[in-house]
Amino acid sequence: MSATGPGRAVKAPLAVAYGTLFFSLGVYMPFFPLWLTARGLSPGEIGAAIAVPLFTRLLATPLLGILSDRIGRPRAVLAGLAGLTVIAMLVLSQAQAPLAIYVVLGLAAMAWNPSFSLLDAYATRQARAGRVDYGRSRLWGSATFILANLAGGFLIAKAGASAVMVLILVGQASFLAAMLALPELARAPVVAGPHLALPRAGVMLVLGVLAAALVQASHATLYAFSSVHWSERGLSLGVIGGLWALGVVSEILLFRFGTQVLRRIGPLWLLAAGGIAALVRFSALALDPPLWALIPLQLLHGATFGATYLGLVELVARTTPEHRAGTAQSIAGWTVSLAMSIASFAAGQLWVRMGHDAFFASAALGLCGALLALTARALQPQRSGEGGKTVEPS
Question: Helix axis angle, 220-232 relative to 237-286, nearest 10°?
Answer without folding.
Answer: 120
